Amino acid sequence: MDIFKMDLLRIATSGSVDDGKSTLIGRLLYETKQIPEDKLQAIESASFKRGLDFLDLSLLTDGLIAERAQGITIDVAHIYFHTPERKFIIADTPGHVEYTRNMVTGASTAQASIILIDARKGILEQTKRHLFIAHLLQLSRVIVAVNKMDLVDYEEEVFRNIQSEFERMIERIGFQGKVHFLPMSALKGEGVTQFLGYQKWFEGPSLLDLLTELPLMEEEDKEESFRFQVQHVIRPKSSTHPDFRGFAGSLHTGETRVGQRISNARSGQSSTIKSMEKWGKAINSSKKDLALTLILEDEIDLRRGDILLHENEVASTRKQVKAELCWLNGASHQAGSTYILQQGTARTKCKIKSINKSIDLLNLEWKAGGELESNSISEIELQLASPLHMDPYSSVNKLGAFILIHPQSMLTLAVGFPKG
User: Fold this and answer.
1) Domains delineated in the chain
2) How many CA atoms lie within 13 A of 102 on its CB side?
3) I need a labelling partner for 310 at 20 to 30 A (CA). Which of 76, 126, 184, 215 fits?
4) pLDDT tens digits, one per residue of 302-356
5) What is the pTM of this model?
6) Vertex 397 angle, CA 246 and 10, to 5°
7) pLDDT tens, residue by residue, 285-296
8) DSSP bridge pairs for 262
9) Which residues of 68-102 are buried (b: 16+ CB within 10 A; e: fewer)?
C-alpha cells in the first residue's frame, strides 16, 4: 500500500464544548490501528490514574499540558490517518465561542466538515455558528454527528428531532452543500467504524465508511476560470540568461497551456504564454494547484500580486468591495482605522466604509449595522487604496478570500469573503 499515491480528504471537526470531538478522533485512530503501542499504553495508564474504567481516547489529541489540565481543546490540531482506500487529515478545532477564529482557520482548507452535537443538549448557538461558517467557506459536505447516543438510550426520537431542527437551520441559512446525519457514540465506538447493534433503527453507513465514500472536490469540479497569481518576477540577468523574464506563481483554478492568450486583470495588457516550467522542466499544459513559471511572448507590465486571466474573460477589478467578514481579533474595529488587505500575494491599504448588517447567530437573522468585534460575522463595504481583481468567493474560493492586517502590529484581524 503506497499511501503517497492515495486520494486525500481534508476534514474539519467542530462542535460545542464537550461534544466529544477529541474522543471521536481518538476512536478513529484507535479503530484504524494508527496508534503506536507505546502511546496506547501511555493513554491506558493515564486513564487508569484518573480512575476511569474506559480508555480516554481524547488524550490522543488534547496534547497540550493546558488542554489536559482543563479537559478541553484550545488550539487546532491536525491529525493524519489512513485506511486502505484513502488518506485523511482532520483539523480538530476548539468548541469554545472565543476560539471561533481557530475553527475558521481549521476549516479554511477542508473539503468536508463534521459537526458534532451532544444528543442530550441538542442544537446550541455554537452549532449554528459552525454551520454558518461552513456556509461561508462553501464547504460541499457536512456530516452532522449526533454523539453520546448511549446517554439517551439510543432513542431514535432524540436523533430525529435534532435532524429536523438542523434541516430547518439549513433552509434558513441557505446552505447549498450536501448534509449527512449520523447517530453515534464515540466513547463506545458505535457508528464510528461500524454499528455494534445498539441502533437497530439506523441503516446508514458508519462515519468511516461515509468519509471513505465522499467524493473529493476534484471529482465534483465544474469548468473553472483560469486564475494565476504572480508571486515573483524572475530576472537573473546572468551571462547564460541575460534576457530571461519569468513569472513564478500559483495556478489557483482552471487550466492553461502553451500558446494560450492571457491578460493582466490590473492593466488589461495581453500576451501569449510562450513556455511554462515546473521545477525547472518545460511543460506544455497545467491544471490548478501547481506552482509554475510562465514565460510570455511580450514584455507586459506584471508585478507581485497581479492576477492573470484568459484573454476572453472580463476582469473584476475594483476599489470598492462588498464582503462577508469574520472578525478574529480581540480588539474591535475603530471607525476611521486603516488596514492592510492581503489577497494571496497582493496587498493594499483599505478602510471599512460601512457595516451593512451582522448575523445574530442565536436566531440566524441578519440585523442592520452591528459591531466588528471578536467572533462577529458581518457584511461590510471596503474602500481600497489600489484596485484589485476580486472574484466572488462563491465562484473562485481559492483566491477569493482575503485577510485584514493591523498596519503596526501586523496581527491578522479578520478574514473576508467577497460578494459579487
Assistant:
1) 3-220 (3.40.50.300), 227-310 (2.40.30.10), 317-418 (2.40.30.10)
2) 18
3) 215
4) 999 999 999 988 888 999 999 999 998 888 898 889 999 999 999 999 999 999 9
5) 0.85
6) 100
7) 998 878 899 999
8) 271, 310
9) eeeebbbbbbebebebeebbbbbbbbbbebebbbb
